[in-house]
Amino acid sequence: MAHPDDPGTPTDQKIRRRVFRTLLNSLVLLVALAVLGGWLSTGFYRLDLGEAAIILRLGEHNRTVRREGLNWHWPEPIEYDRRVNMSGVRTVIFGGRSGAAEQRSESGEAAEDGLFIQTADKNIVSIRFDLQYTVENAYAFVYSMQEPQDILKETTQASVRQIVGGMTVDEVLTKQKTLVEVESRAALIKTLNLYAKDAGGDPAFAIDKINLQDVQPPLAVRAAFQEVSSAGQDEERSISAAKGDAQEILERARAEAVELSEGSEAYKETVILEAQGESSRFESILAEYVNAPRVTQTRLYLETMQEILPGVQKVIVEPGTVGVMPMLNWPGTAPVAASAPGSSTDSAPMASPAQQTKSTDSSGGGVR
After folding, report:
1. Please, what is the average pLDDT of the chain?
2. Greater confidence, 248 or 295?
3. Residue 321's pLDDT band (boundaries 50, 70, 90)?
4. What per-residue confidence (pLDDT) applies to 337?
């Protein structure tokens, strides 16, 4: 009979030991695989829309993942993630009340809220505003600065104080609110960029806008400032009314100028036409004068007498004669009979301008 310890002789005990070792090894392997699979499964993570994951490998920044959905990294302690919401607009309120209940001063009156800032003309204004921003660089937001929200808050207050401190109280209260918002945002972005440059990284924030919610003088002098503001509004209304009146007067003056211009053009045309008519008449008389100088002179002389003495009866005294000769066929004048014998109206020649002309009025008065 074979000995049980004989290596060359298989026995039930050896078979059982081998089977046990095989099962044990398989079990250990399965457990190891299960543990490894469970450990590897801890590296899965899900990102929602707008989220980013900062992946650190052995404590050093490896990458930033922004892919929406299921992602994986090596499980801890090799790699681990830090998720940051980068899409949502974040808001920081400045100058608001800390609680829902209204704060009271020691005297029992309502305590003022707001951020008190001194202006360029040594006045104080109370400002309430809010800052809207998003996270632009997740790694810089989490690891490049300590307490990033506090840094952003202090930097924003400093920027607003810088801009408001360079303006007068009237500019801040009435005229330059939009300018305060724009310039404060620009100053804040510049400061954050300088901070990021000194830190050797990119800016962590993307500044959307700064909104001035309320700008008021301190409560003790608020009534006086409101009176000043009302006076300023009255001034603006008066200026607007004056500008409207000036525009109306200007339009009326322009219309009158156009009317005068058109009238002067018409008058110019009339004068030109009259001058052209006189010129044509002179040229026609000149032509007649060239042909018959003496007759033309006599006719012009008689026409002139008719124009300057329209209501006077006229007679012609012929030199070398005793009587007078009536001027016949003159419009509105009846012929006059000869006043002395020997004068003839048919045979009397026409007098020249050198001859004397005498006229009497309709009552037979003296000679002119």
Report:
1. 77
2. 248
3. low
4. 42
| CATH at 125 | 3.30.479.30
**What burial letters (b/e) apply to 33-56, b meaning 16+ CB within 10 Å?**
eeeeeeeeeebebebeeebbbbbb
Tokens (6 digits) for 221:
């002098």
Length of the chain: 368
135 in Cβ contact with 54 (< 8 Å): no
Same domain as 151, residue 81:
no
Extract the tokens encoding 179.
């300018």
Residues 250 and 157 in one domain: no
- Dump strand ranges (E) for the chain: 44-47, 51-57, 60-65, 69-72, 79-85, 90-94, 115-118, 124-135, 205-216, 313-316, 325-326, 357-360
The percent of residues above 70 in pLDDT, for the chain, comes to 77
Number of structural domains in the chain: 3
Q: What is the pLDDT of residues 119-163, one digit of tens each?
A: 888 888 889 999 999 888 888 888 877 788 888 899 999 999 999
Task: Find out whether the peptide bond into 77 is cis, omega within 30 degrees of 0.
Answer: yes
Predicted TM-score (pTM) of the model is 0.50
Residues 6+ apart with CB under 8 A from 14: none
- Is 337 among the domain residues? no
| Same domain, yes or no: 262 and 209 | no
CA–CA dist 310, 195 (Å, integer): 107
In a domain, 352, yes or no: no
> Range of 238's domain?
234-299
